[in-house]
């Protein structure tokens, strides 16, 4: 009989491997989407249809010369990209990747850990992640890197406030901070019925959260911390080899995790309509639910890429104005409306 500890170890390794795989092939997908939108072919040399391009990029990053500027802070120069990568990988532990698997008569949850403050955990880890950018930018002792780090910290602070308020409205409605319970809230109760996903109840929360997710992931049109036209390469200007690779990979892992969290909070997570009417076994329903979750994640990853190659980059003053004068008042208004509706219907 499989023990719980062994199952959790396997699940941790699986989530780690899937995160790296999704990050690697998101770089391939990014190039293919950009090529399609610009009427080009994209990667097509490394392997059939260019499918080995991410492996070629990984080998290139490993083999490139490691350069550490003499004027940099050596310890912090290594710590910055390492911290950014570690925090990116830590966020996946509270996401429910599926329902219950029955193995030898014992039910195992496809979630590494279900803590009752899952959303707060995600926000806490994401907040620590920005220190990886700030430390790397400052330790480089380069003015462009420092400006990119300052931009990143200001951007994170500006958009985390509105993002947090948008989630408070969702928490008020669901009554829980656990990502597992929020997924179950959207599952549907009896056979022949299914609850509406949270996006139906909280469309403004979803819109605010989605915009803030772009800013949190440093994705265009909010990629001001690494704005090539102004800052050469931004906070990772001085980094090379796998240190640069850690920054680039972590950004794609953050995009993957953001898509997973959006799918879980607003689009039912691993739940799909009429899942109780299929008459299948528990394990089959769980596998289909996990496939449904990854379908939603892939859609949102494509959406991130579509926006990048469609909308031009904001100016920095526009970025700050949108965060403080646009999204923050909207999130507060949405919070008040949600509270009023809950109060009215609770009577």
Task: Explain this structure.
There is one protein chain. This protein has 347 residues and is mostly helical. It has one domain (68-346). The protein is 66% helix and 2% strand. The chain has helices at 4-37, 53-63, 74-90, 118-139, 143-174, 179-185, 198-201, 203-216, 228-231, 241-266, 282-308, 316-346; strands at 100-103, 106-109. A two-stranded antiparallel sheet has the order 1-2. α1 (4-37) crosses α10 and α3 (74-90) runs parallel beside α10 (241-266). The termini are far apart. Residues 189-194 have low confidence and may be disordered.
Helix content: 55-70%
What is the makeup of the main sheet? 2 strands, antiparallel
Described by the principal axes of the CA atoms, the overall outline is globular
Number of helices: 12
Task: Tell me the layout of helices and strands.
Elements: H1 4-37, H2 53-63, H3 74-90, E1 100-103, E2 106-109, H4 118-139, H5 143-174, H6 179-185, H7 198-201, H8 203-216, H9 228-231, H10 241-266, H11 282-308, H12 316-346
Antiparallel strand pairs: 1-2
Helix pairs in contact: 1-2, 1-10, 1-11, 2-10, 3-4, 3-10, 4-5, 5-8, 5-12, 8-10, 8-12, 10-11
Keywords, separated by commas or semicolons:
12 helices, mainly alpha, 2 strands
In short:
This protein is mainly α and 347 residues long. The protein has helices spanning 4-37, 53-63, 74-90, 118-139, 143-174, 179-185, 198-201, 203-216, 228-231, 241-266, 282-308, 316-346; strands at 100-103, 106-109. It has a two-stranded antiparallel ribbon.
């Amino acid at each position: 009989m499989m023990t719980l500890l062994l199952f959790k170890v396997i699940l941790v390794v699986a989530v780690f491997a899937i995160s790296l795989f999704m990050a690697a092939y998101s770089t391939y997908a990014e190039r293919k989407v950009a090529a399609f939108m610009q009427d080009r072919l994209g990667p097509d040399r490394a392997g059939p249809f260019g499918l080995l391009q991410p492996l070629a990029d990984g080998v290139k990053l490993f083999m490139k010369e490691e350069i550490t500027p003499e004027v940099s802070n050596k310890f912090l120069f290594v710590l910055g990209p390492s911290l950014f990568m570690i925090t990116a990988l830590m966020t996946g532990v509270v996401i429910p990747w599926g329902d219950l698997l029955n193995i030898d008569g014992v039910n195992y949850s496809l979630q590494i850990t279900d803590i009752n403050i899952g959303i707060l955990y995600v926000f806490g880890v994401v907040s620590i992640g920005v220190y990886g950018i700030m430390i790397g930018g400052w330790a480089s002792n380069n003015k462009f890197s420092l400006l990119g780090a300052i931009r990143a910290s200001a951007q994170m602070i500006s958009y985390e406030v509105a993002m947090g308020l948008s989630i408070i409205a969702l928490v008020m409605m669901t009554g829980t901070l656990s990502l597992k319970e929020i997924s179950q809230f959207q599952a549907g109760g009896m056979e022949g019925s299914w609850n509406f996903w949270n996006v139906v109840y909280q469309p403004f929360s979803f819109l605010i959260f989605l915009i803030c997710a772009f800013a949190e992931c440093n994705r265009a049109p909010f990629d001001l911390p690494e704005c090539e036209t102004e800052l050469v390469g931004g906070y990772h200007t001085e980094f090379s080899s796998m240190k640069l690779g850690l920054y680039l990979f972590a950004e794609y892992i953050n995009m993957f995790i953001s898509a997973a969290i959006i799918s879980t909070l607003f689009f039912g997570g691993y739940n799909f309509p009429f899942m109780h009417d299929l008459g299948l076994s528990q394990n089959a329903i769980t596998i289909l639910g996990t496939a449904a979750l990854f379908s939603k994640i892939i859609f949102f990853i494509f959406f991130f890429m579509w926006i990048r190659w469609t909308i031009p980059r904001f100016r920095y003053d526009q970025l700050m104005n949108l965060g403080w004068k646009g999204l923050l008042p909207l999130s507060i208004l949405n919070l008040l409306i949600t509270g009023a509706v809950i109060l009215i219907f609770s009577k």
